[in-house]
Amino acid sequence: DKILEVRNLKKYFNTPKGLLHAVDGVTFSIERGKTLGVVGESGCGKSTTGRVVLRLLEATDGEIIFEGKNIRDYGKAEMVKLREEMQIIFQDPYASLNPRMTISEIIAEPLIIHKKCKNKEELQEKVAKLMETVGLSERLTNTYPHELDGGRRQRIGIARALALNPKFIVCDEPVSALDVSIQAQVLNLMKDLQEEFGLTYMFITHDLSVVKHFSDDIAVMYLGELVEKAPAKELFKNP
Ligand code: ADP
Ligand code: ADP
């Protein structure tokens, strides 16, 4: 059961040096509830692929099929639902989050934008539940992200991504900014959440050791192309 199929995806950027083929005809699919690790050196097009799949960026060409339906054929209401079902976790959530918002405000924001709560009490309850889910202590509710260490900041990013009950999450270098010991904690949390909520992950990283144990399948990108895709077990098998 494939939750996502991507066919011949292309994303070109106009740059001062000419047209840059950041993603150049990439095809892959992801099974529901599984993790696809997307690896490759910096600049090979991993992040752009993830952003095009999420439609944070518009594709130059290609097909994105989510839940069996081409995204091009989604109507307006379906598109709103899609924005809830697909989420992203960034490398450093603090960089993409408003530093003047408290943790609870950051987590509440998607719930407010998507009108998921009838009143303030329900909102507070949901935010408290999300904080508990990602292991953030209740006493941190009114603190600011810059007051926390990287691991806790990333837990905010994860809670925010979970707020709208997503099915599919693009994880864009989610642990790359963290100390190795903290990396393991965040990866374990993500693994538990995957099982609890049946999440599908597209896990982008330049660090093979991070996805080695975490991914079911691994896609290797090189200069905008997908040059290899195999089960993680096969790729890391000793010769
Ligand atoms: P990766 O995630 O593998 O490090 P990216 O997807 O971020 O790679 O980038 C792929 C290529 O596209 C790089 O050469 C990068 O400089 C370029 N690129 C990314 N975003 C833009 C943009 N908005 N405008 C122009 N070039 C971009
Ligand atoms: P970079 O990876 O280049 O450091 P960011 O991760 O901060 O950049 O953000 C990249 C893009 O994603 C920006 O265009 C930003 O507006 C958008 N963006 C940031 N946060 C979100 C979010 N929570 N949901 C959707 N889009 C976002």
Could you describe the 3D structure shown?
The chain is built from nine helices and ten strands. The protein has 239 residues and is an alpha/beta fold. The two termini are 31 Å apart. The mean pLDDT is 94. Bound molecules: adenosine-5'-diphosphate (2 copies). One of its GO terms (biological process) is peptide transport. Residues 113-140 form a coiled coil. Keywords: ATP-binding, Coiled coil, Nucleotide-binding, Transport.
Q: Numbering strands along the chain, what is their spatial order in the largest sheet?
A: 6-7-8-3-9-10
Poorly predicted regions are none
Order of helices and strands: EEEHEEHEHHHHEHEHEEH
Major beta sheet summary: 6 strands, mixed
Shape: globular
The count of β-strands is 10
Radius of gyration: 18 Å
What is the beta-strand fraction? Answer: 25-35%
Key traits:
alpha/beta, 9 helices, 36% helix
In short:
The protein has helices at 46-53, 76-85, 93-96, 103-113, 120-133, 150-162, 180-197, 208-212, 232-235, and strands at 2-15, 18-31, 35-39, 61-66, 69-70, 86-89, 168-172, 200-205, 217-222, 225-231.
Give the SSE layout.
Blueprint: E1 2-15, E2 18-31, E3 35-39, H1 46-53, E4 61-66, E5 69-70, H2 76-85, E6 86-89, H3 93-96, H4 103-113, H5 120-133, H6 150-162, E7 168-172, H7 180-197, E8 200-205, H8 208-212, E9 217-222, E10 225-231, H9 232-235
Parallel strand pairs: 3-8, 3-9, 6-7, 7-8
Antiparallel strand pairs: 1-2, 1-4, 4-5, 9-10
The structure holds adenosine-5'-diphosphate (2 copies).
